[in-house]
Amino acid sequence: MTEQESGELTVEAVLRQLPVTPRTLRYYEEVGLIAPSSRTSGGHRLYDQETVERLQQILRLKENLGVSLQEIREILDAEQALDALRQSFHQNRQDQDRQLEYTDRYIEVLRHLIEKMDEKIKSVTAMRNRYQERLQKSLDFRENGIRK
What pLDDT is stored for residue 1 in this prediction? Predict the structure, then answer.
């Protein structure tokens, strides 16, 4: 079965799509962020589209938010929990009490994610402010200090 027939991608195909190295893929597997969906008869790893999308999300989180792999794991776990809660909510359409329970848990997970992001934003903002102060001092020195 070829890549196109199975819908799974080899390591090489993933590397052509995404800016990662083979070592990065192996490391993400070692720490449990991703897993190959199957292996070829020769033992080569294959990745399904869901895993590739998860890998894209990991890369976006690292690049855009500057989060650690542990933080990424927490975010991905929360996303999975949200998906499970959403499914449970829809499966229990007849039980309003259960739907309210799932809704409350959904809200709790979202609040936790937002709190984590707020902490990250606060940290990045503090770092930016320190650099802004240093820039302003340097500009002031350049403007005032050299002319004296």
Answer: 43
